[in-house]
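note to self — DONT lose this again. spent like an hour looking for the file last time. sequence + predicted structure for the chain T wanted, 297 res
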Amino acid sequence: MTSPANEQLLKLHYILPLSWKKVRNLMKITDDFDEIVHISPKFLAVQLNIKEEKAVQLIKHYKELIPRSMATYYNQHSINAIPYTDPLYPERLKQLYDAPAVIYAQGDIRLLNRTKMIAVIGSRAATSYSEHAMNSILPPLIREQYVVVSGLAKGADRLAHEAAIRYGGKTIGVLGHGLFHSYPPQNKELNAYMAREHLLVTEYPPYVSVQKWHFPARNRIISGLSEALVVTEAALKSGTLITTELALEQGKDVFAVPGNIFSEQSRGTNKLIKEGAIPVWDGFQILEEIQLFSKSR
């Protein structure tokens, strides 16, 4: 059963997907979100740092949702809506500066709080080099029960999910849109399979469509869930390097696969190594490094 407070948070987040930080700001005014309908739009806009017109719409739509049960709605769609205050909410995500107030998951929910998680990412234009690298890197990690986390984009993300499945492991796809959508189109079957047998996670309510600016934001969740990050291929200017920067800010270990100095898709990874990322070419190295780091902490 969802508590009344969590039910209210689910209603609020369905209308306006806020970070937990912004929700806490609202809680300084009231911890009964049903009271939102009695707050002036101007005051609400200031507290949430949104436009007054958006505050008006928030109040209007919240009134409409008051009689509805969000828990029932999500159950009907086989979606787990997990508020920050829920025991299922991953502890690692709570360390994020702008942790989502709610995450939405579909699939094997037990994967969310597995301690061994590793992000495997790379270029959307990944070559066969990424696939060969994953065939060397992932099997030892999977034998040690590591869950492979990636973004279900085309290229290296897809290769990482498929390799995890092929080698009998578990994998989590972090989406930049709601669970009613599948993107990119070529990953539709993989998306559906992972929603049944593995796990899909997003910070966006199910109806939210694909928006370009969502993807850089979701990268902090990929790195946030993971113990460490592996980059197979990346150009010098790419979203992959943004994820790497986030991982470093979060204090995560970053591993990079060295590449051909003449390959555009290896320039980013070679640069990461120059800047201090750990070069790797098989999974045993990663296991040794992680064990070494855990002993020194």
